[in-house]
Amino acid sequence: MAVVVRRGGAQDVRFLRDMLHHAYYWKERQPDAGPGPVQLYVKAWGRPGDTAVIALLDGFPVGAAWYRLFTGEPFGYGFVDENTPELAVAVVPNARGLGVGSALMRGLLERAKDDGYTALSLAVDRHNEGAIGLYRQFGFGQVTEAPDSLTLRLELT
Ligand SMILES: CC(C)(COP(=O)(O)OP(=O)(O)OC[C@H]1O[C@@H](n2cnc3c(N)ncnc32)[C@H](O)[C@@H]1OP(=O)(O)O)[C@@H](O)C(=O)NCCC(=O)NCCS
Questions:
Q1: Whose CA is nearest to atom 40 of ligand 1?
Q2: How far is the CA of 134 from the centre of ligand 1 (A)?
Q3: 107: Cβ below 6 Å to ligand 1?
Q4: Which secondary structure element, helix H or strand E, spans residue 21, and what is its range?
Q5: Is residue 45 within 8 Å of 20, Cβ to Cβ?
Q6: What spacing in Å lies between the alpha carbon of 73 and ligand 1's midpoint?
Q7: Cα separation of 30 and 49, whole Å?
Q8: Domain limits for position 49
Q9: 57 lines ligand 1 (CB under 6 A)
Q10: pLDDT at 35 (0 to 100)
Q11: How do residues 74-128 score in pLDDT, each as one tens digit?
């Protein structure tokens, strides 16, 4: 099975929202409980800096990785500074462990470098070993920690 990674666009917002749910479902908040992750990372998609890649397996979308720059409040959970976009990645459960997450990361890091960014950051649940393993494999290192989560950062060279 060949994984194809293509650029995401405005037509992919619904899929990104679904993927974000996979990435953060244990933190999903009620609509009246303040800005939840969907609001923060997908709402009004198409802001300057918003960048996504979509993975296709046998032609079907099975995962996405994307980043968004936060230049004012509300900031993302993994905010480090206003020049560093925050990355998120998720693969549908039945396509995990096949290299799709790695292919997405490669595609998105390439985009970030092409777009002139010098670093990326993210927040991850400290118990999310699969994601932490993936991020560490790509060179992300820890910058801060909270009781439930870690903030990781990658220098792009
Ligand atoms: C994290 C995630 C994107 C990885 O995608 P994937 O397609 O399964 O990843 P890959 O098959 O490319 O694996 C790449 C590396 O990730 C790590 N990894 C993936 N699943 C893992 C697991 N269950 N336990 C430990 N490490 C894991 C390993 O380092 C692996 O490298 P290896 O195969 O050489 O051991 C996927 O598990 C997922 O969607 N999880 C739910 C969403 C999520 O938590 N997103 C992150 C929110 S911050």
A1: 90
A2: 5
A3: no
A4: helix 13-24
A5: no
A6: 30
A7: 27
A8: 3-155
A9: no
A10: 55
A11: 999 999 999 999 999 999 999 999 999 999 999 999 999 999 999 999 999 999 9
What is the C-alpha separation between 121 and 67, in angstroms, rounded? Answer: 9
> What pairing do the DSSP bridges indicate for beta strands 51-57 and 3-7?
antiparallel
Residue closest to 84 by CA, chosen among 67, 64, 65 = 67
Count of structural domains within the chain: 1
Q: Tell me the CATH number at 30.
A: 3.40.630.30
Q: Supply the residue whose CA is at minimum distance from atom 4 of ligand 1.
A: 101
- Residues 6 or more apart whose Cβ sits within 8 Å of residue 58: 1, 2
Residues ≥6 apart with Cβ < 8 Å to 47: 68, 69
Distance from the alpha carbon of residue 19 to the mean position of ligand 1, in angstroms? 14
Give the position of tokens 């749910």.
Answer: 21
